[in-house]
Amino acid sequence: MNGGADGFMRMRTLQVVVLLVFGILAARLCYLQLFDTKYDELAKGNALRREVLYPPRGEVYDRNGEFLVQSRECYDLMVVARDMDRRGFDTALLCSVVGISRDKLERELRKAASYPRAPHMITNYISKEEKLRFDECNFRGFYTVYRTVRQYPRKIGGNLLGYVGEVNASILRRYPDYQMGEYVGVSGVESAYEPELRGRKGVRIEEKDAHGAIKGSYMEGRFDTVPIPGKAIVCTIDARLQLFAEELMKGKVGAAVAIEPSTGEILMMVSSPTYDPDELVGRERGNNYVRIMNDPRHPLFNRAVSARYPPGSTFKIVQGLIGMQEGVLKPSDRYPCNGGYHVGRLSMKCHEHPSPLDLRFAVSTSCNAYFCYVFRDILDNPKYGSVKEGFDVWKEYVESFGFGRKLGSDFLNETNGYVPDRAFYDRRYRGSWNSLTVLSLAIGQGELGCTPLQMANLAAIVANRGYYYIPHIVRHVEGQDSLDRRFYEKHYTKVDPKYFEPIVEGMWSSVNVDGSSRGAQLPGLDVCGKTGTAQNPRGRDHSTFLSFAPRDNPKIAISVYVENGGWGASAALPIASLIEEYYLTDTIRRPWLVEHIKNMNIYYPVYDK
Questions:
Q1: 247 C-beta neighbours (distance < 10 Å), count
Q2: Do the Cβ atoms of 145 and 124 come closer than 8 Å?
C-alpha cells in the first residue's frame, strides 16, 4: 500500500516538473514572439543597410563676400565583404575606375574580411566623375558615400583658416559623438568654429535582397533623416590684403597682424612661412603633412598668435603711458642721452640723436635712455614701500594692455606671452634685486614675451586712446544675430585717455617730422608709427614696427615682426607701410618698394621654437 502511494507521488512529481518545463518554454516562446524585438532587429539588420549621410561643411567668406573656403563633392568607396561577388569581381577594372593600386585594394579587402558584415572604407576622395563610372559597373557589395572636401580658391591664410583632418583619439575626447573615419577641423577657423561649420549628419536605410543587392529605400524612407549643411561663416579678413601681405612676407620668418581699431576685427593675419592649404586636402594629404611637419621653419606653427617675441622698442610707449598715469612723468620732462643710459658699470646703449629730449621726441627717435629714466621712476616711486611693490604696480598696468595673458580671441591656440612677476626675480636673484637689475624691461627686452597679435592690439589701444575690443577673426555666422558678446565690449587699460595724446603726437612725429619711422610716411594719411629693434641672442636682431592710420578716426592698426630683420625701419616698417597704403588707398604708389621687399630673402638660422 505504501509502495503504491510512493509510486503515485513520484508520477505526480514528474508530471508537475514536465508541465513546469513546458510552461517555461511556452512563456519564453510567447515573450520572444510578442515582446522581445532583439531577434527581429537582428533579422532586419541582415536585410537592411544603414548609410550615414554627411552634410557639406559650411563655406567661409572674406569680409567682402569673396570665397576663402569652399566645399566640393567627393565620395568614399565602401565595401561589405559578405555581399561581394568574389567569382565575378574584376579587380583590375575597379582599380582603374577609382584610381587606386591593386595592392591597396587587396590590403583593404583583407581588413574588410575580418568583419564581413560591417562596412569598410576602401579609399576616399573619389571624384564625381570616378563615382559616375563606378555606378555604371555595378560592383556588388561596393557602394559610395557622399562627402565634401575643402578647396581654397585664393590659396591663402593656411594658418588662420586651418585645415580639416580625420578624427583621432584626442579629438574624440573633445567631441565624443564623432566616430573614427569622420572629418573635423584641426586648427584655425576650421577648429574654433567646428560646431557651426560641421552641420548635422543624416541617415538613409536601404533594403537588400538575399544576394545583397539593394532593392530600394526601406519603408519608403520613413526612417531616413536628411543631413543639415554646416553654417556659412563670414570672416573679418580682407582676402586681397591677406594675399598682398603674404607675398610681402615670403622669404622671411615672422608675422604681420592688422586690426580695425573701432571693432577689433582682424583685417589680415600672416604667419610666415605659411603653406598652401590645398596641400592638406586629398589623397596626398598624408605625404604633404609629413613634409610640412619636417620643415625646420615650422609652417604649421601660427606665429601670429602663438610665438613669444621680445617687443623691443615698441614697448617704450607703454612705459611712457604708465609714467604719466603714475605722476612720475610729464610730457615736457627732459632727460639727457649721451649715447645711452649709464649708471656705474651698467650701460644701455642708444643711437645718435639730439639731447636732452622730451617725451614726444623720445618716442619719435626711440631713445633708450629716456625710457630707462621713466621706468626707474615708476619702480622707485616713493609712494610705494619698496621697488618690489612698485614692480607689482607696473605689472598690473602692463597686463591691462593685454600682455602676459590671452586676449580671448577666437583662436584656440592663442598663447599668453609672458610678463615676469616679482617671484621670478626673487628666485633668480635670491630676493636681492632692484630697478637696475630689471632695467632691460624698460626697452621691451629681458624676459618680456609678446605675441604679434598682442602687439597689434597695442597699436589699436593707442589708436583708440586707451581701450580695445578683443581681436577676432569671424564677423558673422549664418543664422546668428551676433557673435559672442565679449567681442562687442570695450576693454579699458588703467591709463586715462588724456595721457595717450602725447604718445600719439610722438608716433605721428616719428613718421611725419623728425623720427625713426619716416619711411612709413604716406602723404595725406597721417600715419603714426613706432619702430622697434629687438635684441636676439641667437643671431641678427629682430625687426618690428607698430603703426596705425589715420591719426584721427583710425581705420587700421598693424604690427609686423620679422625675425633677424635688423633695424625696425629696414624690414618691418616698409612691409607695414605698404599694407597700410594698400588698405587705405586701394592702390600701391611705390611698386619699386614692393619688388624690393618681395626679393628680400632674409637669412635666418634654424632653431626650435
A1: 14
A2: no
Q: Say yes or no: 450 and 467 in one domain.
A: yes
Q: Are 450 and 309 in contact (CB under 8 A)?
A: yes
* The residue to which cell 626650435 is assigned: 608
The pLDDT score that the predictor gives to residue 540 is 87
Paired sense of beta strands 542-549 and 48-53, if any: unpaired
Q: Decide if 474 contacts 234 (C-beta within 8 A).
A: yes
Burial of 480 (0-12, 13-18, 19+ CB in 10 A): exposed
Give me the pLDDT at residue 33, please: 62
Classified as helix, coil or strand, 121 is strand
HSE value, Cβ hemisphere, 13 Å, CA-based, for 358: 10
Q: Do 193 and 255 sit in the same domain of this protein?
A: no
Instruction: Please state, in angstroms and rounded to a whole number, the distance separating the CA atoms of residues 1 and 560.
Output: 115
- The pLDDT score that the predictor gives to residue 54 is 87
Q: Answer for the pair 328, 311: CB distance below 8 angstroms, yes or no.
A: no
Q: Are 193 and 410 in contact (CB under 8 A)?
A: yes
Of 206, 231, 202, nearest to 54 by C-alpha is: 202
Compute and round to an integer the Cα radius of gyration of the chain.
34
CA distance 265 to 241: 14
Q: Which amino acid is at 258?
A: A
197 in a structural domain: yes
This prediction has a pTM of 0.87
Residues of the chain with confidence (pLDDT) below 70: 1-8, 10, 16-18, 28-46, 208-216, 220-221, 603-609
Residue of 296, 297, 279 lying closest to 288 (CA atoms): 279
Cell of 503: 604718445
Q: Map residue 34 onto helix, strand or coil.
A: helix
Backbone angles phi, psi at 539, to 5 degrees: 155, -160
Sequence-ordered strand ranges (E) for 285-350? 340-343, 346-349
Q: What's the grid cell of residue 129?
A: 566623375
Using one digit for the tens of pLDDT, what is the confidence trace for 564-588?
998 888 999 999 999 999 999 999 9
H-assigned helices in 450-571: 452-463, 500-512
Q: What is the CATH number of the domain that holds 130?
A: 3.90.1310.10
The pLDDT, as a whole number, for residue 582 is 97
Residues 223 and 243 in one domain: no
Q: What is d(CA 138, CA 572) in angstroms, rounded to the nearest whole number?
A: 61
Domain that residue 444 falls in: 239-274+301-598
Nine cell digits for residue 439: 632695467
The predicted pLDDT at position 45 comes to 46
Task: Kindly tell me the number of DSSP H helices and DSSP E strands found in the chain.
Answer: 21, 20
